[in-house]
Amino acid sequence: MQGHLLIQNATLVLPDIVVDGDLRVSNGIITSIAPGGGLEPNSEENFIDATGLHLLPGAIDPHVHFREPGDVNKEDLESGSRAAAAGGVTSFLDMPNNNPNTTNRISLERKISIASKKAVNHHGFFIGATNDNIGDLQSVEGMDGVCGIKIFMGSTTGDLLVHEQKQLENIFANTNAIIATHAEDEERLQQRSKDFRNRKDIASHAEYRDVECALLATKRASSLAKEYNHRLHIVHLTSGKEADWLYNNKGNMITTEVCAQHLTFDQDDVEKLGERVLMNPPIRYTEDRETLWKRLKDGTIDCVVTDHAPHTLKSKEEGFPNSPAGMPGVETSLPLMLTHAMEGRCKIMDVTKWMSSGPAKVYGIQNKGSLIEGYDADLTLVDLENHRTIYDADTWTRVGWTPYNGMELTGWPIFTIVDGNVIHKRDINGSLKGIAVGKPGDTGRVLKFD
User: Fold this and answer.
1) Which of 347, 362, 227 is nearest to 301 (CA)?
2) pTM value?
């Protein structure tokens, strides 16, 4: 029965149409899609009557910080994986700023080994760039489970930083894997730090890490990508100026992403929610949020992510500027974006493009991200008929809170399915937290990248 499943009476969100019908999974692969229905169950498969539910490809979150090794009091690969499953995320890519940082083959092999025992969904990992680990970056090219190279061009949480031109050129010139960069200009940050040393108001965060800081780094990274004919992915785009500049200058070598929170929050939310929405780069202004939506819809921005970066509420309550930057989000991003869709901001098919097929295309994850016969059966069945309010107590993340506490959202996953196996489920009328079904190590596997 493992990996064999029939879903009947669902509203199927296919790549080019939304239609009622059935879908069959055999050996973890989508084998039949029947618009209009008509597939009959057999004794070898599990069965779900999906009446009233929309069937989407599982979300792929290519930007999470699951904190293992080093800070497992905040999150580990099991709790982060569980949170992802609760949010309809069937694959995740984890960042390298751990303790110790993931900057060589041995540390990558360690994370992959831990994930094989703890994760319930598919997984891949970034290797972190330093000023002197070019040999390590080269040594993991083509290694299963390694999705790309992460460069922090500006100081942020953790101690990974590469910002000198010589070292950046060395990495772009002598590696082949996709480079994902945190684009903030370190020199500008250093120059401006003295002017903000005595500011204690949280609004100063976006003033210090300003739009120009982000734009300078985005232009610089883009120039390197074009000079060395190297694939570049700019992570967590936050400003309208960056998005507009990329619209005119992106080319074929560059892709980018936006966080769901930057499509949702603005300066008023920062004032209201305080340190809960403190992150790097910061939540910006209403005009930035609106331009990000515009550039997401016209294809300049390729995918929607979370930058899930949990910190304890105790540390958050230390207050700005002592509070750490980052927030959880992997279990709320899909309902949040589906809520935007139901409110008319976008279409449901847009959400699946931005959160499923888009990340798969950016990172070359084959046979994932769409409801297509022959693709892997990584799926989520969501309820778009009911709005439910999420509270901190409903979360699976180890830190036990959400920036969306008290918000009413729709599109909550009722079933999250990996390779045809249910790994998380909810009762429409039951606990919003739901039930973890998948067993760590039994479902989910290391991803391969093209």
Assistant:
1) 362
2) 0.97
Q: What is the mean pLDDT of residues 46-67?
A: 98
193 with 243, same domain: the answer is: yes
Q: Does residue 335 sit in the same domain as residue 391?
A: no
Task: State residue 270 phi and psi, 5-degree precision.
Answer: -60, -45
- Residue found by looking up tokens 């994986």 in the block: 81
Cβ-contact 215, 242 below 8 angstroms: yes
State which H helix or E strand residue 110 sits in. helix 105-118
Q: Is residue 284 located within the same domain as residue 160? A: yes
| Residue 159 pLDDT exceeds 70 | no
The residues annotated as belonging to the active site are 307
Q: What is the pLDDT of residue 348?
A: 98
For residue 77 the two structure tokens come to 């690969």
Q: CA of 316: how far to CAs of 153, 271, 394, in Å?
A: 25, 15, 19
| Lateral strand order in the sheet of 303-305 | 59-64, 89-94, 122-128, 146-152, 179-182, 232-234, 254-259, 303-305
Any domain includes 46: yes
**Beta strands, E only, 155-305:** 179-182, 232-234, 254-259, 303-305
Residues 400 and 306 in one domain: no
DSSP string, 402-435: -TTTT-EE--EEEEEEETTEEEEE--TTS-SS-E
| Cα separation values, 272 from 124, 159, 265, 330, 403, Å | 35, 30, 10, 22, 11
Residues 289 and 141 in one domain: yes
Q: How many domains does the chain have?
A: 2
Q: Judge if 102 and 248 occupy the same domain.
A: yes
Distance between CA atoms of residues 144 and 141, nearest Å: 9
Q: Which residues contact 130 (CB under 8 A, 6 or more apart)?
A: 101, 103, 160, 162
Give the range of the structural domain holding residue 95, as residue numbers without chain letter.
87-363
Q: In this structure, are strands 408-409 and 388-389 parallel, antiparallel, or unpaired?
A: antiparallel
Number of H helices, E strands in the chain: 14, 19
The model's confidence at residue 158, banded by pLDDT at 50, 70 and 90, is low
Residues linked to residue 19 through DSSP beta bridges, in sequence order = 12
Whether residue 382 contacts residue 412, with contact meaning beta carbons closer than 8 Å, is answered with: yes
Verify that 148 and 23 share a domain, yes or no: no
Pair 318, 242: CB distance under 8 Å = no
| Alpha carbons within 13 A on the beta-carbon side of 195 | 11
- 17 with 114, same domain: the answer is no
